[in-house]
Design goal:
The protein is mainly α. It has helices at residues 7-14, 26-39, 53-66, 68-82.
Length: 87
């Protein structure tokens, strides 16, 4: 199985949760996680444009516990290997 790691591919890896529609898009929350990791700051310093820091942190921890980050990394490595970018 080789899905591109775009919105559709990400939805496949992550799954879809039933219930109330979210206030913040997954893209905003993931961008907030990326910002926090890149900046190396405390979670409370995540800019409000990415959503409340508690929401950003909550998604990060849920995905960490569920192994989603490991699946994303594996998929990205497989794509890079297929493209010959990994030596």
């Amino acid at each position: 199985m080789s899905l591109p790691l775009n919105e559709r591919g990400l939805r496949y890896l992550v799954g879809k949760k039933a219930g109330r529609p979210p206030k913040w898009t997954k893209r905003q929350l993931i961008d907030g996680i990326r910002w926090r990791i890149r900046a190396g700051t405390p979670w409370r310093d995540v800019p409000a444009r990415y959503g409340p820091w508690q929401t950003v942190y909550g998604l990060f921890r849920r995905w960490q516990r569920a192994g989603v980050w490991a699946r994303i990394l594996t998929a990205l490595q497989a794509l890079a290997d297929a493209a010959g970018a990994i030596v």
